[in-house]
Write a structure and sequence with these properties.
The complex is a heterodimer of chains A (429) and B (123). Chain A is an alpha+beta fold and 429 residues long. Chain A has 5 domains: 7-68, Orthogonal Bundle (434 Repressor (Amino-terminal Domain)), CATH 1.10.260.40; 76-127, no CATH class; 131-191; 202-261; 263-429, no CATH class. Chain A contains 17 helices and 6 strands. Chain A has a 6-stranded mixed sheet with strand order 2-1-5-4-3-6. The two termini of chain A are 23 Å apart. Chain B is an alpha/beta fold. Chain B has helices at 12-24, 38-44, 61-70, 88-97, 109-122, and strands spanning 4-8, 28-32, 49-53, 79-83, 101-104. In chain B, 38% of the residues are buried. The chains are: A alpha+beta (429), B alpha/beta (123).
Chain lengths: 429, 123
């Protein structure tokens, strides 16, 4: 296994941070200063007992030297920098995260907040620009104003006008004023939301994801046998109603059907026995593979199951559902890696895909991914195919059985060279 | 013989007001309210100047302008666009398609009259 070339830099940074002289550290671990100097400048490899001795001397866990900082945090720091096209020392991001984890977390939190606000502004901007109801109301208002202004200025223009024309323009102004009042009221009704004094509202999909994250994507109320009250669950989980309630209703109906097909107690035990193999579970429960993937993702890590993430996308690349899992960032739309099985599954509909994906961080963390693309809706001749792909993501598979796909999170923060799937230059090279 | 203006607009009270203003200024004003058959009307007249609304039933003013510029008999007729959407991209699209002037509602009567005169003098 290749040694991470940045280990030496980490040792040097931590040593300097602790104000230990190079000669003293070398003496503590029983090597010469010149050899430690070569290690710290990444000109000699370090591993095994010597690495453990150095870690002990520096009072840090060996993993901190060999793996560095939390790769998810590092990815998020890179994203924070690239999202704003900030000219920062990207190659020092890891040192920053190691030395000042609190500040690094603050930068990440602020970046996420900025991204959320940016998305919100984009939604509002789209609404102002493209919303047909708003555009129609504004058009009516402006048209009525134009007609009133033209007719009124003719009447007050000072030139002599026939009585017939005068009467017609008076009538037009009255008609347009009535129309203007109605259009204005409709516009105000449309713009006037009931909670204008409250905090900003998130998008419906955010509300659904927040509500599901709060219960760890496990709906205890749907795991019991017998009658369930989905409308009440929807109301409890998405009290704002409207679009979020529609999304939640669809999620809960699917969840309920999956739970009926694969009852929790039996499914949980069988999943353990089958080593969480979706195809084996599909055969045992006579259930579609995509339903098994969803069902597996609902198992609680707190009950001793593997942590599992889930992504569902349509063929445009838009994410329809995301259950995040540590280390594998799932964008909402259009910014994922085309090499993920989630997307390659669209090329082989109905065929289960099993692949390991390695992310381009210091440790090349692996994720075992199961994916399948399945048709949606009723079949019909000559109808355009509508497919949804579902992918289960399991971090750190026990042992790799295949060569991992060298994937990424997003091209902007992916350093891989020569990737045929690259759609834009990396900002971190 | 007075010069002919064709006003393609679907709002009756705006049609009435503009027709009155331009008629009083010496123009013969023809009007048409439907986007689908607007080109037939232009070819049948043809007018000296066209005032063309963007949002029309059946077909947008931009599509009609595109056809006007692509048709030999109508390619050089001055066109003044009217729109309730004053967005930069609408103005830019109108210019790209060959509009001679772009006017955002609500406009004043004097603006309409003056720009029609200017377009006529420029031809």
């Amino acid at each position: 296994m290749a040694i991470d070339p940045i280990i030496g830099t980490r040792i040097r940074d931590i040593r300097l941070d602790q104000e230990i002289r190079q000669a003293d550290l070398a003496k503590m671990v029983g090597i010469s200063s010149s050899y430690l100097n070569l290690i710290e400048h990444n000109k000699r490899r370090i591993a095994g007992k010597l690495l453990s001795d150095v870690a002990l001397a520096l009072s840090v866990a060996p993993e901190r030297l060999s793996q560095g900082v939390n790769t998810s945090l590092l990815d998020q720091l890179h994203s924070a920098a690239t999202n704003l096209s900030a000219k920062v020392e990207l190659d020092r991001a890891e040192n920053m995260a190691v030395r000042y984890p609190g500040w690094a977390a603050l930068i990440v939190a602020q970046s996420k907040q900025l991204a959320a606000l940016h998305d919100r502004v984009q939604v509002l901007n789209d609404r102002m620009t493209y919303d047909p109801e708003l555009a129609g109301s504004l058009h009516q208002v402006i048209t009525a104003v134009t007609a009133v202004r033209s007719a009124a200025s003719i009447l007050v223009g000072g030139e002599r006008i026939d009585a017939d024309w005068q009467a017609r323009f008076h009538r037009n102004i009255y008609d347009d004023s009535v129309r203007l009042a109605a259009s204005s009221e409709a516009l105000i009704r449309y713009l006037d939301t009931p909670d204008t004094d409250g905090p900003p509202q998130s998008a419906p999909v955010d509300e659904v994801e927040t509500a599901l994250a709060a219960v760890d994507y496990h709906i205890a109320g749907l795991e019991r046998a017998g009658q369930v009250n989905i409308p009440k669950l929807v109301k409890d989980m998405t009290p704002r109603g409207d679009a979020a309630a529609d999304l939640m209703t669809r999620f809960l109906q699917t969840y309920h059907a999956d739970a009926a097909l694969m009852p929790l107690t039996k499914f949980a035990q069988t999943a353990r026995d089958a080593d969480y193999d979706p195809v084996a579970l599909s055969h045992q429960f006579h259930a579609p593979v995509d339903a098994v993937l969803r069902r597996l993702s609902s198992l609680l890590a707190a009950d001793g199951h593997l942590p599992m993430g889930l992504a569902v996308a349509d063929a445009s690349g838009a994410m329809l559902f995301r259950k995040p899992v540590s280390g594998f960032a799932l964008p909402r739309a259009g910014a994922g890696c085309p090499l993920w099985p989630l997307f390659t599954a669209f090329g082989r509909p109905n065929q289960p895909i099993r692949a390991e994906v390695a992310l381009p961080d210091a440790t090349e963390q692996r994720f075992l991914c199961y994916a399948i693309a399945t048709p949606v809706g009723a079949a019909g001749f000559d109808a355009p195919p509508v497919l949804h792909a579902t992918m289960l993501i399991i971090p750190d598979p026990a042992q790799g059985t295949t060569e991992p796909i060298p994937g990424g999170v997003s091209c902007r923060i992916c350093p891989r060279d020569g990737c045929a799937a690259r759609r834009e230059p990396s900002a971190i090279r | 013989m007075s010069k002919r203006v064709l006003l393609i607009e679907d709002e009756p009270n705006i049609i009435e007001a503009i027709s009155f203003i331009l008629s009083r200024d010496g123009w013969t004003v023809h009007t048409h309210e439907d986007g689908m058959s607007a080109m037939d009307k232009v070819l049948a007249l043809p007018p000296d100047i066209i005032i063309l609304d963007v949002m029309l039933p059946g077909r947008s003013g931009f599509d009609i302008l595109r056809d006007l510029r692509a048709t030999a008999e109508t390619a050089k007729i001055p066109v003044m666009m009217l729109t309730a959407r004053g967005q930069a991209r609408d103005r830019e699209l109108a210019e790209r398609l060959g509009a001679n002037h772009f006017m955002t509602k609500p406009f004043s009567n004097a603006e309409v009259r003056d720009h029609v005169r200017e377009l006529m003098e420029a031809t």
